[in-house]
Amino acid sequence: MPAYHPSHRLGTVICTNEDPNVLEFSFVLEGGLNEVTVKRGEFVAVEAEFGTVVASVRDLVRTNRYFQHAEAVREYQSRGEPLRSIFPTDRWQYTLAHTRVVGFWINNRTVRPYTAVSPGAVVRRIEEDVLARFLRLDAEDGLNLGTIANHNVEFRASVDKLLSKHVAVLAMSGAGKSYFISVMLEELLKRSREQGRLSVVVIDVHGEYSYLQDLSAHDLGIPENSFEVEHIRGAHIQIPVSSLTAEALGSFASGMSEVQKRDLRMAISDIRKSLKKEYNLSDIIQKVKDDDTISKNTREALIGWLFNLESTGLFGKEAFPKLVEIIRPGKVTLIDLSDFISLKKKQIIVSHLVGELLNYRRQNRIPPFLLILEESHQFCPESRHELAIPKPRIETIAREGRKFYALLCLVTQRPVKLSTTVLSQCSNQVILRCTNPYDLDHIGRSSEGIDRSSLDAITTLEVGEALFVGETVSVPTFVKIRKRSFEPKDHTQNLSEALLKSEQKGHR
Ligand SMILES: Nc1ncnc2c1ncn2[C@@H]1O[C@H](COP(=O)(O)OP(=O)(O)O)[C@@H](O)[C@H]1O
Ligand SMILES: [Mg+2]
What we know:
CATH class of the largest domain: Alpha Beta
Shape: elongated
Strand order of the largest sheet: 9-8-20-19-18-10-17-16-11-15-12
Radius of gyration: 29 Å
Number of strands: 20
Oligomer: single chain
Number of domains: 3
Bound molecules: adenosine-5'-diphosphate, magnesium ion
């Protein structure tokens, strides 16, 4: 099958001083006064002897030699006779499209460009399923996340390419990050046993995903519920003290000294020896209080730390939830932290869960999982001056997790504030609208595949439009994220809708 629409001619390659070269060519659009339409970002094809050259339109420039000389234009203007009324100016207008070559399509394979197209070659619209295959999408088993911008092609991302390593979802707030996550969750939940189902844990900082509890097979258009969604309220979470080492406890209280850790370790080992299998923080506090081998200063500091931890109300004798029992294929577990205002409490929970998930996965006691972390800059900040209890564990999972499919999906509206160690481990990036120059700069530096023109385009994206960079696609690709199949009941599009709802409810 040809890689282009035979009838869809777009233009002819020209030669300038710079191009065509291996990576660029320019062409003049066809059609004279009824010029064809080509959009910035659109993929086009040129048939060459060796195969098809696939390029993306980088920019469009209109020219008209009648308007090239400012003085002539000024002269006619001051006479009150526009050039248009004297000369056939419109016949001399044409558009030049500048393209960037993104690859060759040879014998059904994507090949890196190695030579230039010929001047005079015909540029055509690309055939849709060739484009899908060129980009390495998975038409059958892929996740249907939306459509390729400027093309009528479903963006079906291969699970293996999108999720077998860590993913970062980056954009300013309101750009559609969480919406994209819900679309991805719908697609993951739709998967059948035969396709293999991932287990997903969502750290839901704002309680945005709890509506998914009401999701049914009917909403997703699948024959039966082969999935499960469990909603766990942050307030119910309990961290089992007796399973924690002194290091683990110490990690919740940042800044503990070596001496304090050593004494805490001894206190805990004494309690364990005294036959108590299950104990809580107050038992440790008592033990430290009674222990005169600990110096007065250390004792007071330790008791202070421990009281502080106890006052969070997050610790107890038994674990809740028991991750080994609840993490299952085809299941989404929502950890809803919207009850908490305190960042420290949220961090303690995240740190604990991340540590447990990684350990259990290492021991193969839970299936491969995807951990979605909203507001990830709050949990794994780049700056050393911010509270960052879970940071070492998140960095460990980022570095080592993918070997055994402990996968991260990090979502943030402040990419510049997210740990670069973690960001650089993300083999895939989904970038939505972003206008902050510091964030853009950071995104540009942390992802190899992204060029200046794509970076510029990120500032002009609309809500729900994303740039995929990384292993999912052979070249950076703009995607219009699809609509959700299932909407939260109380979802409001904008302020006026929210105001109307509150009037109806009779809020006073
Ligand atoms: N792909 C999309 N299709 C339709 N509407 C969208 C899409 N993405 C985002 N929106 C709209 O934009 C709003 C904000 O998106 P959201 O995902 O909450 O932003 P973020 O998480 O980036 O702050 C959503 O509530 C929704 O109304
Ligand atoms: Mg959000």
